[in-house]
Amino acid sequence: MELRIYPNKQASGAAAAEWIAHLIRQAISQRGAANIIVATGASQFEMFSHIITLAVDWSKVTVFHLDEYIGLPISHPASFRRYLKQRFVDKLPELHKFHEINAEADPLAECRRLGDLIRSSPVDVACVGIGENGHLAFNDPPADFDTQEPYIVVNLDAACRQQQVGEGWFAALQDVPLQAISMSINQIMKSAAIVCLVPDARKASAVQKTVEGPLTNIVPASIMQQHPRCWLFLDEPAAAGLTRRL
Fold first, then answer.
1. CB 123 within 8 A of CB 36
2. Among 26, 13, 103, 81, which residue's Cα sits nearest to residue 53?
3. Which of the 8 DSSP states describes residue 222?
């Protein structure tokens, strides 16, 4: 896991976007197309606002949706489909394909549908973040490190749900759905490259445990220690707990 640390979230987000664009261009050069995974949340705002300005042949890029709340309509402000369409997909009309998670479909059937799609589409770049509880996608602790299913139904823990309230997506804890569809840990780890963007002081503890702690499903993001091509983009507040910075 390579660390890249910047003074603030604007700089880290822009740098992550530049590196993601580089990896996409590399994949297109090597095999004529690229498949990527994109995350959502407040941590990704700066990355999305920058990457849509960069020179990328989006007509050769297929995007897979990382996770989504079960039962949440796209009209809801917290819908991740809504987030991605507003900040990314709709701003790139030339984009080849966006495989979104339909939150209102039967969850198990939707997992099977998306799983079949991604099995035949090896992922070049996974763009992810880390939750305050150390989750990766919506794989909350203790995460399932064993399942080989690409997409799974997960239960959201209280810390994860409270983070969504703290970020302003929901008015109260009881409003946050209890379950989501998430890409599994093993599916994320199959990506040829992982770019993980994590700003803000509230993520400092999770970052420290991810980078310097033991590999454990109690800190799901720690699995990235095992990935051979993983870059962690941090701002100084998120990196504050680290004892090593290389």
1. yes
2. 13
3. G
Instruction: Tell me the CA end-to-end span of the chain in Å, nearest whole number.
Output: 9
The three-state secondary structure class of 152 is strand
β-pair type (97-99, 230-235): unpaired
- Kindly report, residue by residue over 110-165, the tens digit of the pLDDT: 999 999 999 999 999 999 999 999 999 999 999 999 999 999 999 999 999 999 99
Taking Cα atoms as reference points, which of 213, 162, 237 lies closest to residue 1?
A: 213
Distance of CA 109 to the CA centre of its chain: 22
Helix (H, G, I), strand (E, B) or coil at 74: coil
The pTM assigned to this predicted structure is 0.95
Cis peptide bond prior to 142, omega within 30° of 0: yes
What is the phi/psi pair of residue 213, to 5°? -85, 180
Label residues 65-79 b or e (16+ Cβ within 10 Å = b).
bbbbbbebeeebebb
Amino acid, res. 150 = P
Domains (range + CATH), the chain: 2-235 (3.40.50.1360)
Give the pLDDT confidence score for residue 244 in this predicted structure: 79
List all residues 6 or more positions away from 178 whose beta carbon is below 8 Å from its beta carbon.
155, 156, 161
* Residue 187: closest CA among 129, 144, 230: 144
Q: Any alpha helices (H) in the chain, and if so which ranges?
A: 9-31, 45-51, 80-87, 107-119, 158-166, 185-189, 204-212
In the block, tokens 């996974």 appear at: 126
Element (H, E) at 195: strand 193-198
